[in-house]
Structure formats: C-alpha cells, structure tokens
Design a protein that fits this description.
alpha/beta, six-stranded mixed sheet
C-alpha cells in the first residue's frame, strides 16, 4: 500500500509538470503544497485496552457482533479432537476437528486486536496437528508456531491487521489428508468501524469428503487417499454432514429479515458454486474481503480455501434451498441446505410470489426409462427384520427420499405417496416390480392419478428387500417384510407391474 501511494504521487507530479500554468495557478499550487496532509494512523500505534476470552460457536451459529471501538487482547482457546460422527444416515466417519465439530469453531475478532491463540491437542488424538489461519500475517499463518503433538498445548500470538472473513485449516503433513478429514473453519476480522447490523447471521461451510465405500454405503467409512488425489468426492456437504442444514436442522428466519451468510469452503479440492434457490444476493463480498460488494448476484464462486459474505433480505415466506450449483453435488452428494422463512403479511407474500395459480397438461419430449448404475456389492445379508428395516432406511434416504420425501408423502401431481399407499399395500409383487424394473405410465394411488416415470434403480435383491421392508414398516403401511428370494422371483419375470406406475 505504501509503495502504491508513492507511485501515485510521482505520477501526479509528472502529469502536473506537463501542463502549462499561469502565475496565479502557480501561487495557488504553492499554497496548496504548503498544507500539511492528514497523517494516516498506524493501527499498531493505537493502544490495547483490556483483554477478553473469545466466544467460539459451532456452525451454523455465529458469535455476536463486536460493539467496542478499541483494540483489545483476545484469547482464543481451541482444542483439536479426533471423533467419530455421522456423515449421513447409517454412515459414520472419523473426523479430525477444531473444537469437536466440522467445520471448526467460528472465531470473531476486530481489526487491530492482539490475538493470543492456544491450540491444545487432545491426549486421545493419534496425530499431531497445527493451525494455519489465513487471517495471520506471518510465516505459515501460524502453522509452525502451533505444531502440537497429542497431549500438548501450543501458544502463539498475532495482530489481526486485515479485515475480512478468512479460512483456517490444519497444515500438518500430509496436509490434504488433514483438511479432507474436516480440519477447517472461519475466522472473521471485523473492520475497525464495525459491520452494519443485520437480523440474522449464519455460518455455512462446504467440504468434500472421500471414503472407501460409495455414497450411502453403511458403516464406519475410512478415508480414501486415492479418491482424494483423483478429486473424486463421494460426499460434498455443508457443515460436515448430509442433512446438517435440512429438515429440523434448517436455518430459521422471518419474512423481512436481512440475512448475512458467512460462507466458507474448506475443500480440500472442489470450488463451490454457492446459490440460494429463490433468492438474489443483495450484496456479495467476494473472496472474503470488505471492499465494494457485487450487487444482485445469483451464484457466487467460493474457492477451496476461500470464503464469501452473502447478504439478502427475505421478502416472502417459504423454504429457500442452499446448494452448490454444480448440481449433482447438491442432489446426489449432499451439498444442500434450507432456510425457512415464516411470518410476514399474507397478501404481501402473495404479491412477491403467488405460488401455483394454474395447472395445465404439458407433454415433454421422450419418455424413455432411465437406468441408474449402482454398486451391488454389499455386506452380509440382513439377519432379522429389524436389521432389514435399519438398512432399508439408509438406502431410502440415499435413493428414494428426494422424490417421495422423508415422510413418504410424495409430491402432489408428480410423485405418489408411499404413506398409507393402497398401491403398495395391495400387492408386494407390484411394489417389487416397480423398484426392480421401473415404471412409466398412469397409475392410481389413494384415489389420485399420477403419470410420470420411475427409473430402474439398479439395486440388488438385498437392497430392494431392505428398502421395501422399511417402507412397509413406516407411515401407516401394513408392516410386510420383503425377502431377497421374493425379489429374485419377481426379477426373473422381467415384466412391469400390470397397471403402470409413476
């Protein structure tokens, strides 16, 4: 910055020398030059007043905005732990964490603060760890100073010179493996003049994960270095797991709220195309800086190891979907979340967005049944009906819930309900055939007609038996158990259900 100012001054003086001036201009110029320019205050010259312990929060929560207008000493206490947590329903993973969660704890300080950082590595950890904070001006972002073996604690300090929202991560070799296991988070350095007040602030951080098994494969999944090197992610998720921001975990707000999302991307590999379906970002502070924002943005890129701040106002009620708009990551690998907006004036809400006001017949092109390839290699067959139901739930969440919904209600005029379904309860053979062979054409379920396509899902006999047994056990259905032998018999018929399907 100092070099930039010097060059700018030289350029202005040179340009002035080339312009003819009158005597009066010269006198005016001389008087102007005699004026003493305003002195720029160095942040390090400002006094430090007192100290405080940093409030650290788990995603999606954010510590409160800073209201003080002076520098202070901020003590950050962070513990590294290696813990087994849920990656998806039925799927566990050993995460390496800053503070027991993925992403790591959110840290909030003010420009100019002296940050004293305490990094403790839990005695039960198997690996040494450290922390590289992108907000640090200094070699390694603190990585060398914070290298900590299990059962030890390291302390170092830095001054938060630059305002912005910054990623931090572990930088212990192999660096990629530590990051891929969930070792990343965000640190916010508020500008010294503070941030404009908003109604809601949330912490959302994307990460890509690489497991030995495929997406949805049950059990404790180990890390796959081979897939990570190929950048072939099985899971791409917000806040550490599939469903971390959906259903009961959805972000909650009210119509009229101004929302600020601190969005990070831990990577280790993939760039995020961050988008909120049904909203336009009023302001996007790209790459984590507090410069002039981009206005009216639909989708913003967040690089691996980078961040952005997205601000918008909720102008109507409803559920707004957060996605990585590299869209298969959202609907097939887990990068999906929700903001639920409630309240507001009912008439005003309808003016902003009416919902469906008409329903007409439209005949799309084509109509061929899809084939979705899936790995059929599975663990030992289920030994009991209860085990079959548990495995079926995992498969249902991974394969079926997007269309038929988590509660089996389906979607009106599109996907028929599985809850209290007369179609399912009337014939196991028809149900098995629908899953094994797929269906197209008109079908009547609970008195309503549906006319769409269900692809053949490519599930093996065990998976079909498990998922149907789960469905039969749920939502008021008749509790039937479907066995792999029954599936095998229907598969051998190689015919579709006689009255079509969805």
């Amino acid at each position: 910055m100092k070099h930039t100012k010097k060059l700018l001054g030289i350029a202005l003086l040179t340009a002035t020398a080339l312009i003819p001036v009158s005597c009066e201009d010269a006198v005016g110029q001389k008087k102007s030059e005699e004026k003493t320019p305003a002195k720029e205050v160095n942040i390090l010259d400002e006094p430090i007043k007192g100290e405080e312990i940093a409030i650290l929060t788990d995603a999606p929560k954010v510590p409160p905005q800073i209201t003080r207008r002076h520098r202070t000493k901020v003590i950050v206490n962070m513990e590294v732990t290696e813990v087994v947590k849920k990656m998806a329903d039925g799927v566990d993973y050993t995460f390496w964490t800053f503070g027991g969660s993925v992403p790591g704890k959110f840290i909030r300080v003010r420009e100019g603060d002296l940050v004293e950082f305490h990094l403790a590595n839990h005695p039960d950890s198997k690996m040494p760890h450290n922390i590289d904070l992108h907000a640090v001006t200094g070699p390694g972002g603190g990585a060398a100073a914070s290298f900590t073996t299990p059962g030890h604690e390291s302390v170092f300090s830095f001054t938060a010179l630059n305002p912005g929202i910054y990623v931090y991560h572990c930088a212990t070799a192999p660096v990629g493996m530590h990051i891929a296991n969930g070792m990343y988070g965000l640190i916010l350095v508020e500008p010294k003049e503070g941030l404009p007040k908003v109604d809601k602030e949330f912490y959302v951080m994307q990460g890509d994960f690489y497991t030995k098994g495929k997406y949805g494969e049950a059990g404790l999944q180990p890390f796959s270095m081979e897939k990570a090197i190929r950048e072939d992610a099985d899971y791409v998720v917000f806040n550490g797991s599939v469903g971390a921001l959906t259903g009961d975990n959805a972000l909650q707000a009210e119509v009229g709220d101004k929302v600020r999302l601190f969005v990070g991307n831990g990577g280790p590999n993939l760039v995020s195309s961050f988008h909120v379906i049904g909203e336009i970002f009023d302001n996007v502070f790209t790459e984590g800086g507090w410069g002039s924002p981009n206005k009216h943005v639909q989708t913003t890129l967040v690089p691996a190891g980078g961040s952005a701040v997205c601000e918008f106002t909720l102008d109507t009620e409803g559920t707004f979907i957060l996605v990585d708009h590299s869209i298969f990551r959202a609907f097939n690998k887990g990068a999906i979340g929700m903001i639920k907006a409630t309240g507001g004036d009912a008439e005003q809400n309808k003016i902003v967005y009416s919902g469906k006001t008409d329903d007409r017949i439209y005949q799309p092109e084509g109509g061929a049944i899809q084939e979705i390839a899936q790995d059929s290699s599975k663990p030992a067959p289920a030994a009991t009906k209860e085990e079959r139901i548990a495995r079926g739930k995992t498969k249902y969440v991974a394969v079926c819930s997007a269309c038929h919904q988590a509660n089996g209600a389906g979607i009106p005029a599109a996907f028929p309900p599985l809850a209290k379904s007369d179609y399912l309860n009337g014939s196991k053979e028809k149900s098995i055939s629908a899953v094994v062979h797929g269906l197209s054409g008109e079908v009547t379920v609970n008195g309503e007609k549906y006319n769409s396509i269900m692809p053949s899902l490519g599930l093996n006999d065990e998976d079909v038996a498990n998922v149907l047994t789960y469905v039969y056990s749920m939502w008021g259905n008749n509790g039937s158990e479907v066995t792999p032998d029954e599936v095998k018999k229907v598969r051998a018929m190689d015919v579709k259900a006689p009255d079509g399907g969805h």
